[in-house]
Amino acid sequence: MTIILILLSLFATNIVWERTYPGCSFIDVHQTSDYGFIVAGNYYGTTRVSYQEQNDDRAYQPYLYKLSETGDLEWSTEVTPFGGSIKRVEELPDGGYAATGFFIRLVGRATSKELFLARLNEDGEVLWVSFQPSDNDEIGYAVSQLPTGGFVVLGVSNWACEYGSFILVFFDDVGTEIFRTSWGQASGESSSSTGYIISTDNDRILLCGSAYPYDWPPHPIQACFSYYGEQLWYRHYPIAGLWGREGYMRADGDCWFCTEKHALQIDTLSGDIVSDTYLGFNPGGEIIYSCDITFDGGLIAAGFRDYWGPIDCSGSSTMTEETEDGWIIKLSEAGEIMWQEHLENTSKDQSFYSVRQLSGGGYIAAGVYSGSGGWLVRFEPEQGIESQSDFVELKASIVSNPVYLPVVIEIELCRSAQVKIDLFDITGRIEESFDLFFEKGVHYIEFDNIQYGVHFVKITSDYSSTNLRFTVLAGT
Predict the structure, then answer these.
(1) CA–CA separation, 236 vs 314, rounded Å?
(2) Would you give per-residue pLDDT tens digits along the chain (476 residues)?
(3) Are 57 and 113 in contact (CB under 8 A)?
(4) Which residues touch 343 (CB under 8 Å, ≥6 apart)?
(5) Is the entire prediction scored with pTM above 0.85?
(6) How far apart are CA 37 and CA 213, in angstroms?
(7) Residue 432 to residue 423: CA distance in whole angstroms
(8) Which of 332, 349, 379 is the last residue of a domain?
(9) Same structural domain, 352 and 264
(10) Is 54 helix (H, G, I), strand (E, B) or coil?
(11) Distance of alpha carbon 190 from alpha carbon 469, whole angstroms
(12) Residue 57 and which of 87, 198, 410, 423 are 20 to 30 A apart at CA?
């Protein structure tokens, strides 16, 4: 498959670059360990299709796209040959990827949505795809690798139109489904539906999303499970009519939880809402689809904003109907709106579906640019916020010759932080693991009792993470 890149004109001075990728839709984006990007979504081709075909999931193919630091396409992969979409992708410690979503399976003359988990290597080659046929429509919304080397997928099983149950599906490291658990009522087929895995630390899985506690309208929810599928607690918040989006743990133990119109700070222990910030200018005018915690403890969020064009002297719009324009908003640690950017376009609908802060302090946002396809925008760091040249949260490198033992890794932190260090072998099995508190500065970790062969190290601080790979020719 060939994708043509189109360089668009810039809408704002703080945009580094902006690109569209014809024939595809972007749903999830992450910066990779080589400072490029992995993007999940689907591909429907560059030929014009009818409205019915555009709204038929069978017209789309689940695709992953690997892009360089400047947005150039390095490779793209069709994960399954069936119609469907990828909702979430995660880079793994070995440089490969895990992805989940759904594909369309024909059942007689009817169709069924099947949740899948796919494992790919660092070059985009599909190693395996796992799924279990179900009588219900099932969609995977989030995936995370567990310390055991296996995976957990958060999804929704729809059993009556737009109603259904949340499901947690556990897989081993080769894609065999071990067990699953379901609970509650969750949002179903609507494009606004979502679920998100906040963290898988401390032997627990912390989740957020949307649910119907009793009936319409939906409420944002949080839940916590053990690695064995046992529900530890479940909370729903009485903010009716709002779809829960994504959530992240903060260093102070609180949690950022973003809904389509609110950013909530939640005390993880008590479940109390610490702060509630309304995001937007008018009711119904803006929708948030994605958020990410930032280095300063705040939040970056993105979605779309309705735009009616310039207002004339009578107070009326010069446009007869609105368009949807890309929208990005930054909140401080206290939940205050610091700035927001509205990427105005008067002729095309456009929306961000995913936003992440970059290791250098800027941002990447991915979505759909109507009439053109996948949309990717890179924003520079804000003025007054540390940039890549003077602010790197976490740096790591191998300072010894990794061919022979011991292997010494240098870790540099710009501020004090709790740091988790995991050493993996080539199969993804954890060989050693450390959870240490480091003061600001340079520290060294030594591995002197490991086998020969390829190894990976994942280093995660309160605010950032990085991966290293090395080969030992003379091990123990």
Answers:
(1) 45
(2) 444 443 333 333 478 999 989 888 899 999 999 999 999 988 875 443 333 344 444 467 889 999 999 999 999 999 987 788 899 999 998 999 999 999 887 766 567 788 999 999 999 999 999 988 877 888 899 999 998 899 999 988 875 545 567 889 999 999 999 999 987 665 443 333 457 787 787 788 888 777 655 455 567 778 889 988 898 888 877 664 466 677 777 766 678 888 777 888 888 778 788 888 887 654 446 788 888 888 888 889 998 876 544 433 343 444 445 567 788 888 888 888 888 887 766 556 788 999 999 987 889 999 998 756 899 999 988 743 333 333 346 778 887 666 677 888 888 876 677 888 988 887 778 888 888 888 777 888 888 888 878 888 888 876 667 778 777 876 55
(3) yes
(4) 11, 12, 325, 326, 327, 328, 350, 377
(5) no
(6) 37
(7) 5
(8) 379
(9) yes
(10) helix
(11) 41
(12) 198
DSSP lists the bridge partners of residue 419 as 436
Instruction: Name the one residue in this structure whose structure tokens are 């292997």.
Output: 407
Structure tokens at 97: 């990827």
Q: Is 387 contained in some domain? A: no
Final residue belonging to a domain, choices 344, 379, 414: 379
Do 410 and 466 belong to one domain? yes
**Token representation of residue 369:** 């640019």
